[in-house]
Amino acid sequence: MPKIIGRSLEEHRREVRSRVFDVLRGQLYERGFDAITLAGVAAEAGLGRTAMYNHFPDKESLLVAFVEDEATRYVERLKAAVATADTPVEKLSTFVRLQLRVLAEYHLPPGTALASALAPAAYRRISAHADPITGQLREILAEGVPEEDPELLIPMITAALGSRQVVDVPPERLDDAIEGAVRFVLRAVGMRDDREKPEN
User: Fold this and answer.
1) Within a 13 Å sphere around the CA of 75, how many CA atoms are in the beta-carbon half?
2) Which top CATH class is 1-57?
3) Percent of the chain at pLDDT exceeding 90
4) In terms of Cα–Cα distance, which of 101, 80, 91, 100 is closest to 186?
5) What are residue 88's phi and psi, to 5 degrees?
6) How far apart are CA 67 and CA 50, in angstroms?
7) How far, in Å, CA of 192 to CA of 196, rounded?
8) CATH 1.10.10.60 domain extents, the chain
9) How far apart (Å, rounded) are the C-alpha atoms in residues 94 and 100?
10) Over the range 74-103, which residues count as b (16 or more CB within 10 Å of their CB) and which as e?
11) Rounded-to-integer distance, Cα 72 and Cα 155, Å
12) Distinct helix (H) and strand (E) counts, the chain
């Protein structure tokens, strides 16, 4: 019988998932999605292959569970961060920064590649977690640029923030790249950052 981690089966399940997700997070950053295997994740997490398969029968189920867990925590983090911002400019800037930080941290394949790698039902489950994030952006735009249609701006912004080229820079240049993207998005939607120096 596999060794139980924690004081109950539920605690054991949480501990195993946490350990596996920590390993997967690191491997996504170091290797990318395509190079990851269940056996490799299990070995680094200190789990037997049977125990791993009991929790995640295949790579697809592991990825879906991981994305759902990460997305839930990210949405909470995003809402909390945006709530501390006073103006639409600050809210949109916060949104852009967090989105790009996450993009820099995780090496999931882009949407089209991910869709082809997963079964349709699994991809729909993952995609559904973008809805609260899109909703947050919609609220920011409605407040900041009420004269514009958010449904036209949202795909433009998400496309700009979804390109890995923005964050695929040396670590010492990442902050500058992100701040450049913040300025780009603000200008694109017609918001002005009062901290910027006026052009002569």
Assistant:
1) 14
2) mainly alpha
3) 46
4) 91
5) -55, -35
6) 22
7) 8
8) 1-57
9) 10
10) bbeebeebbeeeeebbbbbbbbbbbbbebb
11) 22
12) 10, 0
| 87 CA to centre of own chain | 24
CA distance 174 to 180: 10
- Contacts of residues 118-127 at CB distance under 8 Å and 24 or more positions apart, as own/partner, are 118/60, 118/63, 118/64, 119/60, 122/60, 122/61, 122/63, 122/64, 125/64, 125/68, 126/63, 126/64, 126/67, 126/68
Give DSSP secondary structure letters for 174-195: HHHHHHHHHHHHHHHHT---TT
37-90, pLDDT tens digit by residue? 999 999 999 998 888 988 899 888 898 898 888 888 889 999 999 999 999 999
Tokens representing residue 123 in the block: 């991809």
- Give the span between the Cα atoms of 183 and 170, in whole angstroms: 20
The fold adopted by the segment(s) 59-191 is: Tetracycline Repressor; domain 2 (1.10.357)
Measured in degrees and rounded to the nearest 5, phi and psi for residue 157 equal -70, -45
pLDDT class of 107 with cuts at 50, 70, 90: low
Threshold 0.90, pTM exceeds: no
Dihedral of alpha carbons 4, 7, 13, 14, sign:
negative
User: CA 28, CA 62: separation in Å to the nearest integer?
Assistant: 12
Q: Where in the chain is the domain with CATH 1.10.357.10?
A: 59-191
